[in-house]
Every structure is written in C-alpha cells, then in structure tokens.
C-alpha cells in the first residue's frame, strides 16, 4: 500500500502545483491514498475554503487535514460538518464543528483510519 501525505499546501502557488500535478503523480507512483494538510491553502496563506477542498478532491486527494488555522476562512465552519473527508484537529476544543477522526476505504476496499491531532507547544 502506498500512502502519500503532503504537509501544508500554502496559498495559490501550493494549490496550483497540487491541482496540476497530483493526478499524474498518483498514476506514475501507483499511490493508493492521499492525505493533504490544507489549513493554509487559501489565497491569504491561512485557512481553507470549500472551493479549494473540492479542487483538491477532484485532483485525487482522499482526505484533507487541518490545524490551528482551520477557522481562518469562516465559510469552512458550515462545510466541515457536511464533508467527511475534511478533518479538523481531534484535540481541538469541544464541541467544535466537524470530526477529527474517520475511517475511509481505498479503491481496493482497504480501510484506513485517519486521526488528525494538533500539537500546542509554544502556541
């Protein structure tokens, strides 16, 4: 099984690179599952939008994780409750919108659990 985790896609340039090249990388490297940290993917370099999430999913991303900037683009608060492939930090304040853990299936019907945790040292 090949799992690709891409950490912290940032801003327009990071999103552009991901959406232009990820599908070909998935095919050429025979990647089975893709996790991307997208908490800084918005044009401003902080936060995430529904449109960016959809672009990532259409580009082959299976799960998007976030961190302390998850709520910087307010529109994500409504979307995160509806989208199971978008995870907030599990150890974020409770109650918080969305989930911090979920189980997914690959195209080969293999189950993968993804737990999104956030460190809080020096924050």
Average predicted local confidence, pLDDT:
94
The biggest beta sheet reads: 3 strands, parallel
Gyration radius from CA atoms, angstroms: 14 Å
Return the structural class: alpha/beta
- Described by its quaternary structure, the protein is single chain
How many distinct beta strands?
A: 5
Describe the structure in your own words.
With 123 residues, this protein is of the alpha/beta class. Helices cover 28% and strands 18% of the residues. A three-stranded parallel sheet has the order 1-2-3, with helices on one face. Strands 4-5 form a two-stranded antiparallel sheet. It has helices spanning 11-29, 50-58, 76-82, and strands spanning 3-6, 33-37, 63-65, 101-105, 111-115. Strand 1 (3-6), helix 1 and strand 2 form a beta-alpha-beta unit.
Short description:
28% of the residues lie in helices and 18% in strands.
Write the layout of secondary structure elements.
Layout: E1 3-6, H1 11-29, E2 33-37, H2 50-58, E3 63-65, H3 76-82, E4 101-105, E5 111-115
Parallel strand pairs: 1-2, 2-3
Antiparallel strand pairs: 4-5
Question: Key terms for this structure?
Answer:
3-stranded parallel sheet; alpha/beta; about 120 residues
């Amino acid at each position: 099984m090949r799992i690709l985790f891409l950490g912290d896609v940032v801003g327009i340039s990071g999103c552009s690179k991901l959406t232009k090249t990820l599908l070909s990388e998935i095919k050429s490297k025979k990647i089975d599952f893709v996790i991307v940290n997208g908490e800084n993917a918005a044009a401003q370099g902080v936060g995430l939008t529904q449109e960016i999430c959809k672009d990532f999913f259409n580009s082959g991303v299976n799960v998007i994780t976030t961190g302390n900037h998850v709520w910087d683009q307010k529109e994500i608060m409504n979307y995160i409750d509806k989208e199971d492939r978008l995870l907030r930090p599990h150890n974020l304040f409770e109650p918080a919108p969305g989930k911090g853990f979920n189980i997914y299936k690959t195209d080969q019907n293999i189950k993968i659990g993804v737990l999104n945790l956030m460190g809080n040292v020096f924050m």
